[in-house]
Design brief:
single chain, alpha/beta, Rossmann fold, 4-stranded parallel beta sheet, 4-stranded antiparallel beta sheet, about 50% helix
């Protein structure tokens, strides 16, 4: 099966064929670095990391560019509030994002360009647009003339006449057309600026990505990604200015991830439900964030409700419990036996269906559902009272396969025992409990059982269960964990 990608520009899935055989050039709009990123920003970071992983698994060399916007009104305003230079703000929050990115255990990008590194090229790019008649200068500002680019609106399916009907002209707004957008903004007093042929100023937002993308990857790139909210005007404007300047098609495949919701409400400042990625990572865990993001198709919305978080914890516990048990089985000495035919059939089917799901527009949700099938098959064979040699044979197939397929998603790479321990500590903290007090109760119950004080043992079990602790008794003693059932 060939890889198919939904192209926002055409509105349909298309077979993926890179411009240059064996090499994929991918650009994804990164963050504007003026504060900690809200959790929605991480959906693109996580998903497009998976896209790169899968493309490489399919044998492509991928050049993945993810930029930092370090010139912006929001950065300037934050710098004024804190009475520091804009660069201080930008560098601080680039570092904070990179810290979060590492906590998520995502792979580094090929390049992370910053706008400030491309100022000369931005000025040259704008000069070319003016020379070719697509842009004009007005009192130190430079605007792109949208009416000169005949295909304006083709990505977002918007028509200029609809955009401009009823448009209210602002005072002193002498632009040729209401929809013309800024390529260069003249500097205000005491504002960060760069010298240009049109006077001191700074670039508009849209031109920045066009210049970084084409400078690093060339006039035409294979994949341009970003959030759905960037389709218009940002990506629409990128197309117009890039193709006007170079004369070549800018992007072959446009990919856009959808938004997050909180309890079926879109995240927004007006609703007061904006949450930073950092706060989520501190309260929960990077594995939980990644699983939630990928356990839904990237073009669908995701509900980041508390209920969904608990479902995710429950799901991850199942995966990691199986991985931890597999490790224990692999460590048991014994003679080698073949893998049972039925389990091998399930393995072959899961591998095939996982690949098909990923090849069908990176359907990570369906891919994860097939991994669930693998876990169920593993548990059905090995979760038995008595150990059999075939259990170890199954574990030796299951463990590396789960690691390998999970690696495509940057999931299931943690040490299983440590991750389950982390989950328990996190859940205990949310319950206001400490590991020491739980272990004390478990020890007291063990002593009561030794003394055959069954009444006291039952009382302690009930106390533990009431605290949300699941107990499992065996010949080797009692094992406890926080109950993760729903």
């Amino acid at each position: 099966m060939s890889l198919r990608i939904y192209n926002t520009e055409t509105g349909k899935k298309e077979e993926f064929k890179p411009i240059e055989e064996g090499h994929v050039k991918m650009y994804v709009c990164g963050p504007t670095v003026y504060d900690f990123l809200h959790i929605g920003n991480y959906r693109g970071a996580i998903f497009f990391n998976t896209v790169r992983n899968w493309l490489e698994r399919r044998g492509y060399i991928v050049t993945y560019v993810y930029n930092y916007t370090d010139v912006d009104d929001k950065i300037l305003n934050r710098a004024k509030e804190e009475n520091v230079e804009p660069k201080v703000i930008a560098e601080k929050y680039i570092a904070e994002f990179q810290k979060d990115y590492k906590l998520l255990h995502l792979r580094p990008h090929s390049k992370n360009p910053k706008v400030t590194e491309f100022m000369d090229k931005i000025i040259m790019f704008i000069s070319d647009l003016i020379e070719k008649g697509f842009a004009y200068e007005l009192n130190g500002d430079v605007y792109f003339d949208v009416h000169k680019f005949k295909e304006y609106g083709r990505l977002s399916n918007k028509k200029l006449e609809d955009l401009e009907s009823g448009y209210r002209i602002e005072v002193n707004d002498n632009k040729k057309n209401p929809s013309d957008f800024a390529l260069w903004k003249s500097a205000k007093e005491n504002e960060q600026s760069w010298e240009s042929p049109w006077g001191a100023g700074r670039p508009g937002w849209h031109i920045e990505c066009s210049v970084m993308a084409t400078s690093i990857l060339g006039d035409t790139i294979d994949i341009h990604g970003g959030g759905l909210d960037l389709v218009f005007p940002h990506h629409e404007n990128e197309i117009a200015q890039s193709e006007a300047c170079t004369g070549h098609k800018f992007v072959k495949y446009w990919m856009h991830n959808n938004m997050l919701e909180f309890g079926s409400q879109k995240m927004s400042k007006s609703l007061g439900n904006v949450r930073t990625g950092r706060s989520f990572l501190e309260e929960y865990n990077g594995e939980i964030m990644k699983f939630m993001m990928l356990n839904a198709h990237y073009r669908s919305t995701i509900d980041f409700s508390e209920e969904q978080i608990q479902r995710t914890i429950h799901s991850l516990a199942k995966f990691y419990s199986a991985l931890a048990f597999a490790k224990k089985l692999i460590a048991i000495d014994g003679h080698l036996v073949p893998v049972p035919d039925e389990f091998q059939k399930t393995v072959d089917k899961v591998q095939r269906h996982f690949d098909d799901a990923m090849d069908e527009d990176f359907n990570t949700a369906e891919a994860i559902s097939h991994l669930f099938e693998l876990v169920r098959a593993f548990n059905s064979v090995v979760r038995k009272p008595k150990f059999e040699p075939e259990h170890r044979a199954v574990a030796e197939v299951f463990f590396p396969l789960m690691r390998d397929l999970g690696n495509c998603l940057s999931l299931f790479q943690e040490r299983p025992e440590e991750f389950l321990h982390t989950l328990d500590d996190m859940l205990l903290a949310k319950k206001g409990l400490k590991r020491e007090e739980i272990e004390l109760l478990v020890d007291q119950r063990a002593k009561a059982r030794e003394n055959k004080d069954w009444t006291r043992a039952d009382e302690l079990r009930k106390e533990l269960v009431d605290k949300g602790i699941a107990l499992q008794d065996s010949n080797n003693g009692s094992h406890w964990e926080v109950d993760k059932s729903l």
